[in-house]
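Hi R.,

Here's the chain you asked about this morning:
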Amino acid sequence: MTITVHFLPDDVRVTAEAGEPLLTVAERAGLRIPTGCLMGSCHACEVDLDGEPVCGCITAIPDSATGKVIVDCASDPGW
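And the predicted structure, written out as tokens:
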């Protein structure tokens, strides 16, 4: 299933396949999500996926009934 991924705050949209790694999709969109451990322990790569915090390094694009998801990369004001 093809999903439209909308990255905020950059307002970048790219298509992805359900199950594709989030970091790969971000890279293809020309964006970089900061990473640390690449195992989900350090939370350096935490973003909001449809309003829920996730670790980008261990998250894949979910199936979406609407065919789109929103990834907010600026949810942490410390970055």
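The helical segments are 22-28.

Let me know if you need anything else.
M.
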